[in-house]
Amino acid sequence: MNSISVFLPCRAGSERVPQKNIKPFAGITNGLLEIKLQQLLKIPLINEIVLSTNDDLIIEYAKKLNNSKISLDIRPEYLCTSSTTTDELIQYVPSIMKKTEHIMWTHVTSPMCNEDDYIKAIDKYFKALAQGYDSLMSVTLLRKFLFYKNGKSVNYDRSIELWPRTQTLSPIYEANSAFFINSIDNYNLYKDRIGKSPYFYELDQIKSFDIDWEEDFKIAEIIYKQTLSE
Predict the structure, then answer these.
(1) Distance (Å, rounded) from C-alpha 88 to C-alpha 157?
(2) Which residues pair with 180 in a beta bridge?
C-alpha cells in the first residue's frame, strides 16, 4: 500500500495576521492548526505529520494532543525569519522527512481543503505517477483577461479580438498552495517541492481559499461556518 508523510510548516511571527495559525477561528479554540490536524489525522494513508514550527504555543498544543502520528520539528530560527525563502525551506525538508518516500506539503491557511480533498489528491498522485507524471500540485484554473504591466495581454491575442468570450481564453493555472505532493527523491534531485512533470490538480476557489491577510481571515471564517452548516 502506498503511504505518504505530511510536511506542515507553522512558523511564529506572521506580520500580516498575528498568531494566525493558532488563534481562535470560527469558534474553534486553536483555530486553523486544530482544523488542519483534525483533517489530516482522518486520512489512513498518512503515516506521519511533521509539524515544523518555532512557535511555543503551537509546540505546547501539539504536545497536549499526544498523537503518535504527529512529529514535532523544532525548526531552526534561521529558517523562521521574514527573509527566509521558500527555496531554503524546501532544501531543509528532506533532512527531517526520513520515514517516507512521498511528501505532501500543505498549509493550515487553507481550511476549506479538507480530508476528502486530500484523499482524492493522494489517490490521483499515485495514479498520475503511473501515467508519466512525477509530482502533483493543486491549482486554480483562471479564465480571465490577464495583462502584463506594459499593457500586453498574457493569455489571448488582441490583434484577433479585443474582448473575446472568457470561455475561449487560453487557460492559465495558478498554483494555489493548498498542497504539493512529490517524492523525497525529487526533493533531493531538483531542490523543489514539485518535479519536472507535475500533474495539475484543480481546486475551486472556495476549496483553495488561502488566508494571507486579516480580511482573508474574516472572509474564511464566514465561508467555513457556511460549509459546516450545509
Answers:
(1) 38
(2) 105, 137
CB-facing half-sphere around the CA of 56: CA atoms within 13 A: 0
Tell the residue number behind the cell numbers 498574457, with chain if given: 154
Strand 70-74: give its sheet, edge to edge: 70-74, 46-53, 4-9, 102-106, 172-183, 135-142, 198-202
Return the number of other C-beta atoms located less than 10 Å from residue 28's C-beta: 15
User: Which neighbouring-strand residues pair with 25?
Assistant: 28
The CATH number for 66's domain is: 3.90.550.10
pLDDT recorded at residue 13: 82
Task: Show the CA angle centred on residue 182, arms to residues 180 and 187, nearest 5°.
Answer: 110
Tell me which residue range forms the domain holding 78. Answer: 4-229
pLDDT in tens, 93-114: 999 998 899 999 999 999 999 9
CA distance 14 to 7: 19
Map grid coordinates 532544501 to a residue.
91
Going by the DSSP 8-state scheme, the letter that residue 78 receives in this structure is G
Residues 6+ apart with CB under 8 A from 59: 53, 72, 74
C-alpha–C-alpha distance, residues 102 and 226, integer Å: 34
Tally of domains in the chain: 1
- pTM (2 d.p.): 0.95
